[in-house]
Design goal:
single chain; 60 residues; alpha+beta; 15% helix
Length: 60
């Protein structure tokens, strides 16, 4: 995924399924377009967040 699409998903009113390259479902919490990074929540655990390259994200 690219940073522009990650930002669109983050701002969308719709629920769009996104997965990390590990197969885990994630929620995008923030996108840093300049650095091509996204902060994501993994699964349903609000405390389980990681900052990853947007290239590791895919839309499902």
């Amino acid at each position: 995924m690219d940073a522009r699409r990650a930002q669109e998903i983050y701002k969308s009113q719709d629920t769009i399924a996104v997965k990390l390259d590990t197969g885990d479902s994630v929620w995008i919490e923030n996108v840093d377009e300049a650095n091509q990074m996204a902060t994501v929540q993994i699964g349903a655990r609000p405390t389980d967040t990681q900052t990853v390259s947007v290239k590791r994200l895919s839309e499902h």
